[in-house]
Amino acid sequence: MQRLKCRVEYDGTAYAGYQVQPNGVTIQAKIENALTQMHKGERVKVIASGRTDAGVHAVGQVIHFDTNLHIPASNWKRALSSMLPSDIRVANAEQVSEDFHARYDAKGKEYRYYVWNSPEANLFRRLYTYHIRKPLDIESMREACRWVEGEHDFTSFCSPRTDLKGSKVRTIRKAAIEQQGTELVFIFKGNGFLYNMVRILVGTILEVGLGDRTPDELKTMLAAGDRKSAGKTAPPHGLFLWNVDY
Amino acid sequence: MQRLKCRVEYDGTAYAGYQVQPNGVTIQAKIENALTQMHKGERVKVIASGRTDAGVHAVGQVIHFDTNLHIPASNWKRALSSMLPSDIRVANAEQVSEDFHARYDAKGKEYRYYVWNSPEANLFRRLYTYHIRKPLDIESMREACRWVEGEHDFTSFCSPRTDLKGSKVRTIRKAAIEQQGTELVFIFKGNGFLYNMVRILVGTILEVGLGDRTPDELKTMLAAGDRKSAGKTAPPHGLFLWNVDY
């Protein structure tokens, strides 16, 4: 038996999210089905660093699973990718110790959120960016980002549909915005993220960029500890799980 | 009655090509249905600069149609776009004289073909680039391009499934390759293109880039006047109708 750790990329457009669920096709199901086929029908359980919602993409999702197949770790990337549909891909595979756990050992994550900021739509980026027609004040949004960095209780930026019972205190090491031509990239690095947290942060910061809120309202929202104090949840298709640190 | 000329963009992924046909959804059908709805059921015929194949994209397709609706030309872009699915978009609309014809008046066209040249796939460009894993010799391919420029009989670069009866002599003003990071962009400008011509040119030039053919074989192929002398037809999803000149 060997344990494998894989970095997985996927285009979330066609899926009902990462995690197996009764309704809709999921990324986890596609990967588990491919592995089950490779193991001649024996069911293989896949553990991921965390779930992603319907429509959310990943370039840095990390999974682990155990296998008794005699395939060298260096060949797994190709072997498993070839069994997956064209919108899911194993980017890297390596053997790890038997006590490695993709979820429990994750020390931090990076998410990126892409915005296409132009009066004109871009058809060919429509599945991977959130289109905002009106001009955005990037300096105001960067000021808002500074309130997000550090250790805070992020209750106001967590969907009430969460099943989390414990603390909502998280540390955000980086909250930044890069401009790449017509695209804005929101970058968030932290030790953990609550349900819908990045999308609510982006939705709220975009309201700052549109002039509907001031940057220091982020401070008030964090203090309120109430989802209603924050802004809208940005749509899923601009969001990428970018990296998981171990 | 006014005649409108529109520049139309589309993601060809979901379509059985531009032109209306019995099997499969087409871009022309989507546009004509939207116009028919706007005209309260009265059928509106749309003329395009030419057809594009299943899976081929456009940023510069040009169409014309006649309308008796009292909508200023400046509002047509938004009005028609709002009736179209998210993968088809009117980028520009203007009133033209009643004798303008999108097909007969076209003086030249530009096509671009995108190649993702890397051992690693890029999921998020998979629908818009042709993935070539092996390294390509760009200088050889540029040398091949030089044989393509000028006036030639392109019979060898035309699908035998064409219904064209007339001359296959065309003038290519520009055949060039730009490198944009991991992507190669093939640019072809000419007074007209035969059926599958750009895809056969790209497929053949890629064989030069892979070292399977020499650049000056392009000269021999042009002289042969036989489709069998040229290389493979590159797949449709890397191809974009970029611009039509009038």
Automatic annotation (TrEMBL), chains A, B:
UniProt cross-references to Pfam families, sorted A to Z: PseudoU_synth_1 (PF01416)
Binding site residues for substrate: 111
Catalysis performed (reactions): uridine(38/39/40) in tRNA = pseudouridine(38/39/40) in tRNA
Domain Pseudouridine synthase I TruA alpha/beta stretches: 8-105, 144-246
Catalytic residues identified in the record: 53
InterPro entries: PsdUridine_synth_cat_dom_sf, PsdUridine_synth_TruA, PsdUridine_synth_TruA_a/b_dom, PsdUridine_synth_TruA_C, TruA/RsuA/RluB/E/F_N
Keywords: Isomerase, tRNA processing
An annotated Gene Ontology molecular function: tRNA pseudouridine(38-40) synthase activity
EC number annotated for this UniProt entry: 5.4.99.12
Record flagged with keyword Isomerase: yes
Quaternary assembly: Homodimer.
Family, per entry: Belongs to the tRNA pseudouridine synthase TruA family.
Classification via NCBIfam families: hisT_truA (TIGR00071)
Function: Formation of pseudouridine at positions 38, 39 and 40 in the anticodon stem and loop of transfer RNAs.
Name under which the protein is recorded: tRNA pseudouridine synthase A
Organism (species): Halobacillus naozhouensis
This protein's encoding gene: truA
